[in-house]
Amino acid sequence: MILDELGVPIVLAPLAGGPATPALAAAVSNAGGLGFLAAGYLTAAALGEQIAAATKLTGRPLGVNVFVPGPPATAAAIADYAAELAGEAHAASTELGEPRYDDDDWDSKLALLESAAPAVCSFTFGCPDAAVIARLRTAGSEVWVTVTRPAEAERAATAGADALVLQGAEAGGHRASFTDDPADDLADGIGLLSLLQLVRARVDLPLVAAGGIGTGAAIATVLAAGASAAQLGTAFLRSPEAGTAAVHRKALDADTATAMTRAFTGRLARGIRNSFIDAHSATVPAAYPQVHYLTAPLRGAGRKTGNPDLVNLWAGQAHELGTARPAAELVAKLAAEARAALRQAAGRWPG
Amino acid sequence: MILDELGVPIVLAPLAGGPATPALAAAVSNAGGLGFLAAGYLTAAALGEQIAAATKLTGRPLGVNVFVPGPPATAAAIADYAAELAGEAHAASTELGEPRYDDDDWDSKLALLESAAPAVCSFTFGCPDAAVIARLRTAGSEVWVTVTRPAEAERAATAGADALVLQGAEAGGHRASFTDDPADDLADGIGLLSLLQLVRARVDLPLVAAGGIGTGAAIATVLAAGASAAQLGTAFLRSPEAGTAAVHRKALDADTATAMTRAFTGRLARGIRNSFIDAHSATVPAAYPQVHYLTAPLRGAGRKTGNPDLVNLWAGQAHELGTARPAAELVAKLAAEARAALRQAAGRWPG
């Protein structure tokens, strides 16, 4: 297992949609962690270029994360939402995007990954079929599946996953849940520490813990709970190697609370609270990726003009603890803090 | 500090509303942890009797938790909710309760606590004035304040609290938030691990970590994150010493997910999902304790007839990991597991 060979038990979260770059992934891998590239929103060809670029920057293992496509939503609800957003598009001097459905170039990406065989292929928004998992393993990759609920962990284990990424409700960005049904919202949101216990009681696979991990003490924490590594995303968003937009970096530098919303993409995600979230979370339909495409020009306008209220400022609950260090420096600092926290906790209670 | 003197870093959660008993509190203290009594819903006189009973059963430190009263809500919204519940009351052959406001006997309880001077007085639903905190400290108690957000932690520290109980969103029962405004729900729900990091970055007080802690590994976890102890409630609900209703015990024995709702009491709380939560969470007003009194006969009927769909089955997200062990046995088991988890985590990464 790659997890047994890492110098530092830190895995970079995929950070699809801009922040992920070959430079960031390579920097984390070169520092002893495991860097990740995000296939989400890219064409297979663009992903191929990113893998090639990252491979030039590091000889160490790298991971690639892929979105599993879901079923299309009904058009009527999307039209209502488009009408609701029309005024905001007009005010931002832009037009809404076409709310189209696509599968994020699924087949081509799988073919590419089979040929590129990165150290790890991880999946978000679902569990690939056992046949797909077997194909990628045969090609030489480990297959990790991201889960948010105990039942998803059992399903991924049955399908043949090598490891599970447990995403707690604290995590920034999209919830990785296999389904995204508003009827489940009331009972959704299992916190990372609960999820670690619940999954460990049911599944014997290696676990990578994600969600709200912003300090070395928190890394120590998830190791003590039985995880093999911690996955951090928000902590790296302000690194110079990340492709994070300026308006997003600026928002991360304040202590504004985060909120969970479908308003930007039609799929539940956590970001820094802004007026767009407050105005539209109650009415947006669960329609991904159609709403993602619908709001794309608005979000683009917000990034261009530096208006944070139009932008999906993805961030985990611990975002205010982040700094703007280079990725390698951050990995070294977090690792030193984590070791110290483990030593201290063990020493405080010698038994 | 009491926290420095505990043989085992396990604190019993208060468990107001039935499960808390002098026998349970004393058993946890006798096992080396810190037992707690819950003043909530009791008269000051009844609380006095509980303190006397527990003190007979243990010579070790005990804590008492008190609800801080909030402002009354408007009557109109409560009348609408009563109309909504009328059919369910009829079907259960009972009548709804009078939705009255009270302050849970606040002044009398403070006077009692000043005279009884338990080792710890802890507070939920708000932060007492600095004068109240000073009074209780002068009487000989440590004062702990339960918080769910970083700003609440700062306020409690300023008011003079000796320690903070950090309640993550994973916790069963009522959210301890100082205010309970539905407008905040979207941005509420900080997970325990994030809360530990966020509060530690702002406040230097000893921290007790609560929410979804169901295993020794999770106790090790919060110690590694810098907490002085873990507070567990749900884990003790099935102990023979607890006053938990039979229908509640039975529900805890399944793996049904929990949900956050105001439906039972008018204040946000986490319980095992049932049809009452699904039917009324969207319409219930934020009106505590009026809704608590309104639904009390319904909940009583559910407990009496063994109908789990009428009962507030408070439980944290890790409830399915619970067992029915005696409290002392559970404390010993969790402590042994926690020590082993800390040793293992420190050993896996010798650095």
Describe the structure.
2 copies of one chain form a homodimer. By secondary structure, chain A is of the alpha/beta class. Chain A folds into 2 domains: 1-69 and 104-241 and 326-351, TIM Barrel (Alpha-Beta Barrel), CATH 3.20.20.70; 73-102 and 243-324, no CATH class. Helix content of chain A is 41%, strand content 13%. The first copy, chain A, is built from 13 helices and 11 strands. The first copy, chain A, has an 8-stranded parallel β-sheet. Chain A has a 3-stranded antiparallel β-sheet with strand order 7-11-10, with no helix packed on it. In chain A, β8 (207-210), α9 (216-224) and β9 (229-232) form a beta-alpha-beta unit. In chain A, α4 runs parallel beside α12, α5 runs parallel beside α6 (130-139) and α9 (216-224) packs across α13. The longest helix of chain A is centred in the C-terminal third of the chain and has 22 residues, at 327-348. Chain A is globular, with a radius of gyration of 19 Å. Chain A starts with a helix and ends with a helix. At the A-B interface, α8, α9, β10 and α13 of A face α8, α9, β10 and α13 of B.
